[in-house]
């Protein structure tokens, strides 16, 4: 039971079903039975419930990357292995450098920063804490992280989990400047900055003319056949009557 009413009755309960989780809110999400939707805590409750159901860590500190980016995962001094579970369930295991190697690298870096401000030396110590680099961020979703300690126990590292999203720069509807537009770049147009002329295939025009001529011929042929069938006189200068028979003369 996640939440309960003042009377002790369950308000929000959770259960695991297969490989996922479900939550049941024992009231409505409108104002028919409760005023919960108009209370300040309603939106944070829905947000954290969605994070819980999605398997994402609680809070707003979770890192968000774009596909293809690398993720540095910090390791505790007694971590022996780091296991990353991808959104599709695939597991990748990384081994951090040994504690001796980490100390040697740290001493070298601190030696180089001697005489520098204290803040810079502290930053060098923090940066060179043991870490592994994960690069297989090719899937969208939540990546879970856990560590194998020296005692043999696996510990969930919710603070190192991260989410991979699509790069939103490809969805920006803003108009590109002329120098970044493919149709305005080098080799396009005449160099004056004007867009290149659109080429039109000649066979389109010839095909349209041919179709028009065939249609006109069909209409004229139909009209001539109709005139002959009804005996309508043709154009001036033409005879439509029969010629007199040979050997006959008028009275």
CATH class of the domain at 63-168: Mainly Beta
| Global structural class | alpha+beta
Low-confidence stretches: 123-128
The count of strands amounts to 11
The helical percent reads: 25-40%
CATH topology heading of the domain at 63-168: Immunoglobulin-like
Based on CA atoms alone, the radius of gyration comes out at 41 Å
Distance between the termini: 127 Å
Largest sheet: 6 strands, mixed
Topology pattern, helix = H, strand = E: EEEHEEEEHHEEEEH
Give the overall pLDDT as a whole number. 76
Description:
By secondary structure, this protein is α+β, with helices and mostly antiparallel strands. Among the domains are: 3-54, no CATH class; 63-168, Immunoglobulin-like (Sandwich), CATH 2.60.40. The protein has helices at 42-54, 99-112, 118-127, 202-230; strands at 3-4, 10-17, 20-25, 63-66, 71-74, 79-85, 91-94, 131-134, 141-149, 154-156, 162-165. The relative contact order is 0.10. The strands form 3 sheets. Strands 4, 6, 7, 9, 10 and 11 form a 6-stranded mixed β-sheet that branches. β9 and β10 (154-156) form a beta hairpin.
What's the helix and strand layout?
Elements: E1 3-4, E2 10-17, E3 20-25, H1 42-54, E4 63-66, E5 71-74, E6 79-85, E7 91-94, H2 99-112, H3 118-127, E8 131-134, E9 141-149, E10 154-156, E11 162-165, H4 202-230
Parallel strand pairs: 4-11
Antiparallel strand pairs: 1-2, 2-3, 5-8, 6-7, 6-9, 9-10, 9-11
């Amino acid at each position: 039971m996640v939440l309960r009413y003042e009377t002790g009755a369950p308000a929000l309960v959770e259960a695991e079903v297969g490989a996922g989780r479900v939550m049941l809110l024992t009231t409505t999400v409108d104002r028919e039975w409760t005023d919960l939707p108009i209370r300040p805590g309603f939106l944070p409750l829905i947000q954290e419930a969605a994070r819980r159901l999605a398997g994402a860590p609680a809070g707003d500190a979770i890192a968000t990357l774009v596909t293809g980016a690398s993720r540095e995962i910090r390791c505790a001094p007694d971590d022996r292995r780091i296991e990353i579970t991808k959104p599709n369930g695939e597991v990748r295991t990384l081994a951090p450098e040994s504690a001796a190697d980490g100390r040697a690298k740290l001493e070298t870096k601190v030696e180089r920063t001697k005489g520098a401000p204290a803040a810079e030396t502290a930053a060098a110590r923090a940066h060179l804490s043991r870490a592994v680099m994960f690069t297989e961020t090719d899937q969208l979703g939540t990546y879970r992280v856990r560590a194998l300690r020296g005692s043999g126990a696996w510990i969930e590292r919710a603070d190192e989990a991260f989410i991979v999203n699509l790069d939103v720069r490809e969805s920006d509807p803003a108009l590109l400047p002329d120098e970044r537009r493919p149709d305005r770049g080098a080799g396009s147009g005449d160099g004056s900055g004007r867009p290149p002329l659109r080429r039109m295939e000649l066979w389109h025009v010839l095909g349209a003319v041919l179709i028009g001529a065939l249609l006109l011929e069909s209409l004229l042929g139909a009209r001539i056949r109709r005139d002959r069938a009804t005996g309508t006189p043709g154009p001036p200068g033409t005879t439509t009557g029969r010629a007199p028979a040979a050997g006959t003369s008028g009275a």
